[in-house]
Amino acid sequence: MIELLIAIAALLLIAGTGFPLAFSLMFVGYCGYAFVHPRGFDAAGTVAGQQVIDLAMNSQFSVLPLFILMGVLVTRSGIADDMYDVANQWLGHLRGGLAASTVAACGGMAAISGSSIATAATMTKVAIPAMRRFKYNDAFSAGTVAAGGTIGILIPPSTALIIYGLLAEVNIAQLFMAGLIPGLISIAVYLVAIRLVCVVRPDWAPPGARSGWAERMQGIYRIWSVMALFLLVMGGIFFGVFTATEGGGIGAGGALIIAIARRRMTLKIFFDALLEAGKTSAAVFTVAFGALMLNQFVNIAGAPREVLDFITGLGLGPWGVVMAILGCFLILGMVIDGPAMIWLTVPIFVPLIEAIGLPIRPDLVLVWWGIVMIVAVEISLITPPIGMNVFVISSMLPDVSLGQVYRGIIPFFLADLARIMVFIFFPSSVLWLVTIMG
Amino acid sequence: MEKDHQGTKIGRVVALAMNVLFRIAGLCLLGLMALVFISVVFRYFLNQPIFAVEDFMSVLLGLTIFMAIPIITLERGHIKVDLLVGLFKGSRPLDRARLILIDLGSLAMLAFLAVQLYGQAAKHLRRGSATQAADIPLWPFSGAFAALLAIGFLAFAVVVIGNWRAGKYGEESGQ
To answer: Could you tell me if A327 and A148 are in contact, meaning their C-beta atoms sit under 8 angstroms apart?
Structure first.
């Protein structure tokens, strides 16, 4: 246990100074492994090389760059504007309708981009000007985009779910299916939060313009191809027609075809998209190399067993342990940004969750935990002092202070607490689709 | 892309090498996407699965990742936590020392990984390790990955030395 605590402290210290997370994880994992293993640095070096090659040449993990590419291609084809327009045409005339449209469009973008920060950044550009035009309260507008953006890592295909699957060795197709219903519940809960805000402060969110039915149908026509692509990819995975990796290939290929058909793709944009996806994938994989090395150290040091014994000794019971871990996430989320939390905590918490005897099907407990953990990470994206989505929005809207954005987030934060409780105490809300998938 | 190392001859060579890697990485990813897409189409519509598709996917994945690592290192595009960075911002010498240590540490880690992958390549060659279906030898690829990391190390070393000489550490352009 003492080795683990020293390693965590060293990791936070090294990574905290701005040293790349990948290298920090690799360094701490390597040194820790060498310290614990009888063959010292020799064995640690061999394991490091082996882990890196195994991961980089595992065809299953092609799923990550492929879905990243799909997201980049669709985003660059300008679909975000169309999605927002369509949501606006259907909901914008209601009080708080533009905020509801933003959340709905965030859900749509999430289904494509898989990244919370990308969703928040895109929707800031698209939704905030419209909300300002209709005299929405700035704090509420920014809070809506920040919170709506978090859905990006829950609705599949999500890079965070892929990373979790990769680290915890959980079936990615099952994770995708498990994320669908919680994603829809999240959108519904946010819509309820918006409605309640409108009841309390009607002046914050006046109604927008009403669109005619012809206009609404035209809007649907503009985005049908992307909706069809999402249904094709998720449907294919759900019915077992293809694997998650193949779904990524179909998604990326389909996104390219759509972008060409929409006349939004030039050779330059295409090549830029390839490079952006390649660089993002490499950054994620490099961290994965380090995280797996740390994982090796944690396992060889017997840390999961010791942490389990310690927690069991506290007499918290399985649900108490889950709540304690979520408490850790809430505290960690205040100082570490969301995705980094996944890398840092999976090696320690996943063996714990597996071993505490939760009343959930043993083969699905890590699928359930993946979703609960991602929701916890989502919440961390909008909690002070380090809320990445808040930072993104604040940097794009210099006239809106961080404090204003955080104030606008309060209703959504309360909604977040409600939904995470639903996912924890009603595991079937997460696992139902997984149990019936092909 | 980091531009401030391009003033010298060696800097221009680095920039050219990175540009080439940049493009090949993009093409590898394109190849990966095309391969997966076509394999699904062939299997379902032509009832003709492509032979050893997973072997080719693993090779293309590895090449994409290792070609992009030098680029993200040069662009300082690695994922960071920045938890304690604020503590250094008050003192310029301290912050400068931090930035130099980060770059030297990154160089050391690139060299470490290159050496370990070279070791893996030697092991693959010794054992005759190959991919499962097509029996493609692994050592040329693990060797190429090691070489790519070594290129990344050299290119980043040029940038670090260039920044050091120009006294750019602690300034916006330095990092």
So the answer is: no
Backbone angles phi, psi at B137, to 5 degrees: -60, 140
Q: Please state the ipTM of this predicted complex.
A: 0.90
Between the CA of residue A46 and those of A35, A59, A253, B5, B66, what are the distances in Å?
A: 14, 22, 38, 34, 19
Whether B66 contacts chain A with CB within 8 A: yes
Of the pLDDT bands very low, low, confident and very high (cuts 50, 70, 90), residue A95 is confident
Q: How would you classify residue B76: left for phi > 0, otherwise alpha for psi between -120 and 50, otherwise beta?
A: left
pLDDT tens, position by position, A189-239: 999 999 999 999 888 888 877 888 888 888 888 888 888 888 888 888 888
Q: Burial level of B98, CB count in 10 A (0-12/13-18/19+)?
A: buried
Spatial distance between the Cα atoms of B102 and B165, rounded to a whole number of angstroms = 17
The SS3 assignment for A95 reads coil
Q: By three-state DSSP, how is residue A154 classified?
A: coil
Residues in chain B: 175
Contact (CB<8Å) B120/A16: no
Coil/strand/helix, residue A406? helix
| Chain A residues within 8 A of B44 when measuring between CB atoms | 241
A–B CB contacts, 8 A cutoff, strictly below: 194
Measured between beta carbons, the chain B residues lying within 8 angstroms of A275 are 22, 25-26
- Angle of CA points B152, B158, B160, to nearest 5°: 100
Q: Which positions in chain B touch A278 (Cβ < 8 Å)?
A: 25-26, 28-29, 64, 67-68
Confirm if A7 and A307 have CB atoms less than 8 A apart. no
CA distance A248 to B145: 24
Report how far residue A300's alpha carbon sits from residue B72's, in angstroms, rounded to the nearest whole number: 31
